Fold this protein.
Amino acid sequence: MLRQHHYRGRTGPEPLLQYLPNTIRVGKFIISIPPIHNLTDGVCGQAGPAAGRGGRLMDFDQLHTFLEIVRLKSFSKAAQTCYRTQPAISAQVRQLEQELRTELFERFGSRISLTTAGRIFAEYAEQMRDLRRRAQDAIAELEINPRGELVIAATEATCIYVLPNVFSQFQKQFPAVQLQVDRSYATRVVEAVMDNSADFGLTQLPVEEKRLQVVTIHHDEIRLIVPAHHHLAERKSVTPEDLLDDPLLLPKQGKTRARLNEWLELVSDQIQISMELDSTEMMKRFVIAGLGLSFLAVSNSREEVASGKLCALPLAPEPMMRRLGLIYRKDKALSKAALGFIQVVQENVAREPEPEKPKLPRVVAG
């Protein structure tokens, strides 16, 4: 999963400094991390925090100074490349020597050479500088060629009817990013995003959680599905009263079930609920087999309707519309790959046309 630290209400590098760890350990050495602008400077820059604390902790600025002296074999030349005075350079070396409790250079007049401890330290200093450079390069590479993992939580129907095309398009644009699907019940989708076990969720709206960002990406209509030769198949729409003689296969839970309960409320004592199922595919297969009638979104039964196996009838008196949304945490820092996923979803999830509402009779003033 692509993870980035995010601190709400603070932007830019400077406010983040108090939240970043001040030290890292490399081999035997503890390195203090100076301000971000110093880490990215190509020259020594200003003295790091250790300089004002009696040299207790070395930092990358001191390492760079030390390595410049080793490379040029001269304090004065290193002062020029680091844009410092020679006394400032000498002070940094003294701070390093105080922390390491040993001399790093032997001085013979204007000539200098590394002590045995200095040669050992120079090897580690090179490794630490290279490690920093590789870390910077790896982070910069993420902006050019994003990689890592995104976890998407979604229901079975969404996995089958929405995600395949989205994933196909995303992989073309971000081939190094791995997509993982967390197949969940609708209620679990929100939980997965909130507890950060999923980067994104695809779920039916509305979502009440205020800490989530919601992007509406899809809407279609929930209809009654019946076998192609059922006596209701020729109807233009159906009411709850039309279903009293047939067994019903209802979704076990979720927003669609709650809305169907409301639609059927007036005949709740008369309807026959023969099964409660948690699988869209099972509902379709059972209806085709004549085990009862069910309710599905138009996009979830399009193939069977087109092949003549099922008929999908609008519900009366008003069409029952559903909205599908992409959800993610508002406080989540989004990587380039995550932003790309949002864009791909918005561009590649087809929307069903809104059904025409019945026209009311025209009222003419007398």
Remarks:
- The chain has 13 helices and 14 strands.
- Confidence is low (pLDDT under 50) at residues 1-24, 33-55, 352-366.
- The radius of gyration is 33 Å.
- The CA atoms of residues 239 and 316 lie 5 Å apart.
